[in-house]
Amino acid sequence: MNALLNSLTEAELAVVRETDRERLAELDEDALVELHTRVRRTRNKYVKLYRRQASTRVAEVGARGKARPKNRRSAQKAEVFEDALARVSRALATAARRSAAELRAERIAAAREQRGTAPRPAARPRSETVAPQRTDLSPMSPALRKRQASTLAKGARRQARRDTR
Fold this sequence. Notes:
Layout: H1 2-7, H2 10-17, H3 21-26, H4 29-61, H5 64-67, H6 72-114, H7 142-164
């Protein structure tokens, strides 16, 4: 692993170094999102490179299994960045949960401040609750006719689908 890390370019090594636990702990959620994007792009670059090189070598050696060992370095780089991406993803998930909890606490506190001091009205038992009456039940109501036509059309479409199968 150290040999592979030593063979990375300075820019690639800098990206991997940024994914250390200590450095991730210092970053806020926005910085973690930006780092996640950079690491994902780098990982995708080496995955694509590995696949592209392996597919061109298949024609030369005759099989995918034989082409794989000759393309080991790109695969190992992709694996290094996959591990780095996993570290950043975990840190980002933790930061997102933390900020969501903070926002929720702020919303609850704001709602409590805005709430009046008057007590809430007591809820009536379900047996006393009266359901709202519909006002569009007259036979000539446009809303009722539209609803009935929609129901009939839906049934006709279902039947047509069954008939065509």
